[in-house]
UniProtKB/TrEMBL annotation:
Example GO molecular function: diguanylate cyclase activity
Catalytic activity: 2 GTP = 3',3'-c-di-GMP + 2 diphosphate
Species assigned in the record: Alteromonas halophila
NCBIfam families named in the record: GGDEF
Protein name as it appears in the record: diguanylate cyclase
Keywords: Phosphoprotein
């Protein structure tokens, strides 16, 4: 059975599509008039979690720091208007996939064209009709879930559930360009499971897969920000991409990863530590137009090599820590 281009609608896919539309989705309502925002919230709060923002700047900040499933956006606001907000969201890798529905009292063609050009998903005209609001919100949330499902099938590693090499090649360059535009720091980390071949030879490939999966979960727990990415780079090797992070911040993250993996206490008889451990190389730098993803990874890989040479179960930071936060 084909479902929107997906053949064989499994129970897992069914669950994925169902759980996002009406249960637990978070909607950001942006309007400088509190009464208007409150009316929309009252219409939606039975089925959705609603967050209010009273300005464009606040809306962008919330979308950057919080998981938002859909934005209802007033067109006319002082300072940063609706078009500016939508344009800003669509330029950022973290927020560009959030559906934006404009709520406006204007049906002028020029106004609507401005919104479409900014990346609008849909329009609602004031006064808002409840049934129209509910149906459009529900439909756009379901479409968002379908897109997320397709992305998870394309970009996620089947064994571990973290990102794969295809994601590394296609999405990380976009994330890096965003950091360059924002003139932020960027940190790359190369991680490797120590003596993994010996582990596989001793305990078998099924146990080896369990180790890779367990280490992946430990890595994920150490990444607290939604902008951070963990990628299975190949075999037992992983990449962490940490935008807006300097050398010391990256080191703190990796220290948590090493500690979390050690706490798994997975027996490894051929390791000098007696348990499964990981080694890591870190490289952070200010991002500019000359910053290349391959160079970041290459420098981090040098650190990983040194960590292996120096006894494993450790990290080597190749950044100039004295000049970076």
């Amino acid at each position: 059975m084909a479902v929107n281009g997906i053949v064989g609608k499994s129970a897992e896919i069914e669950s994925f599509l169902e759980k996002g539309s009406e249960h637990g989705s978070v909607i950001l309502i942006v309007d400088d008039e509190l009464i208007n925002a409150t009316i929309l919230k009252n219409m939606l709060s039975t089925d959705y979690q609603c967050i209010l923002a009273s300005s464009g700047q606040e809306a962008v900040a919330i979308c950057e720091d919080t998981h938002i499933d859909l934005v209802l956006l007033d067109m006319h606001m002082p300072g940063m208007n609706g078009v500016d907000v939508c344009t800003s969201l669509k330029k950022r890798a973290r927020t560009r996939s959030i559906p934006v529905i404009f709520v406006t009292g204007s049906d002028e063609i020029e106004t609507q064209n401005q919104c479409w050009e900014a990346g609008a998903t849909d329009f609602l005209l004031k006064p808002v009709v409840l049934s129209t609001l509910l149906h459009r919100v529900s439909n756009h949330l379901l479409n968002k879930r379908r897109i997320e499902l397709l992305q998870s099938l394309i970009y996620k590693d089947q064994l571990t559930g973290i990102y794969n090499r295809y994601y590394f090649n296609n999405e990380l360059p976009r994330l890096l360009r965003q950091v360059v535009r924002d003139k932020g720091n960027v940190c790359a980390v190369m991680l490797d499971i120590d003596l993994f071949k010996k582990y596989n030879d001793t305990y078998g490939h099924v146990a080896g897969d369990e180790v890779i999966s367990g280490v992946s979960q430990a890595i994920q727990k150490a990444l607290r920000r939604p902008t951070d990415s963990a990628i299975r780079f190949g075999g037992e090797e992983f990449v962490l991409f940490l935008p807006y992070t300097g050398a010391s911040g990256g080191q703190r993250v990796v220290e948590k990863v090493l500690q979390a993996v050690s706490q798994l206490q997975i027996e490894h008889a051929l390791s000098p530590h007696g348990i499964v451990t990981v080694s890591a190389g870190i490289y952070a730098a200010p991002a500019d137009e000359n910053t290349a993803l391959d160079d970041l990874i290459s420098n981090a890989d040098e650190g990983l090599y040194e960590a292996k040479e120096n006894g494993r179960n450790r990290l080597v930071n190749k950044s100039d820590i004295s000049t970076m936060a």
